[in-house]
Amino acid sequence: MAANTHRLIVALDVSSAAAAQKIVTSLGESVHIYKVGMQLYTAEGPQVVRDLVGSGRQVFLDLKYHDIPNTVASVVREAAQLGVSMLTGGAKMLRAAVEAAGPKSLKILAVTVLTSMDESELQQTGVSGNLVDQVLRLASTALDAGCAGVVSSAREVRALRAKLGHNFLIVNPGVRPAGADHGDQARVVTPSEAIQAGATHIVVGRPITAAKDPASAARAIQQEINAAAEQTAKDSSPHVTSAY
User: Fold this and answer.
1) How far apart are CA 152 and CA 113, in angstroms?
2) Matching CATH number, 4-234, of 3.40.50.300, 3.20.20.70, 1.10.1660.10, 2.50.20.10
3) Cα dihedral sign for 235, 237, 241, 244?
4) CA-CA-CA-CA torsion for 78, 81, 82, 86, nearest 10 degrees?
5) What is the pLDDT of residues 136-194, one digit of tens each?
6) Marked catalytic residue, from 22, 64, 92, 104
7) Nearest one of 60, 102, 233 to 242, comparing CA atoms
8) What's the CA gap between 77 and 173, in Å, rounded?
9) 3-state secondary structure (DSSP) of residue 60
10) Annotated catalytic residue 64
């Protein structure tokens, strides 16, 4: 099992490499994994990933690739060359992405239902059934395709573990410390709730990056993660995942 310090992923949802570097510098050694999403990657391109990897950090490249299998396979091979640790995609490309990643350390994660969506919004897209069932369907497809794990709300983690087991990654965006603004997230939980439910990683952005003291905010969340992980291990050691 990786150290609990590797369970926090900080989202670099900024528009320049300079802004991203300022955050990384302020956090120092308290954070090891950073999410690079569409905004930063579109603004700065692959160099921002190279810089993070070159500094010893891990990168979760969250671009949600969704295209024909051949195109996505080519993209995944390029991401692997960049040294990316995690990568997201949609259902159609999963097996091709996994095969393209090969034996490298790049982990392919399937996006289930965005944490900004609630039940009514999901139904408006034409999906029948409830939100949890849709998450379970997509996650099952992802694991059958060989993915290392899924991205979901922490509210679905217990259902995912109950149906699909414990030997895969579950990355939870939409995580906020108690009392923090929810922003555009609909299905929000605290870091402690996510870890206790069975998440392997949590993604936190503005509560850290917009804090007056980002390093202090990150340390507080790390402490909450550690406490939750220790309590979970005491309560049910057979359920501690070995996927990360």
Assistant:
1) 6
2) 3.20.20.70
3) positive
4) 80
5) 999 999 999 999 999 998 889 999 999 999 999 999 998 988 766 655 555 578 999 99
6) 64
7) 233
8) 25
9) strand
10) yes
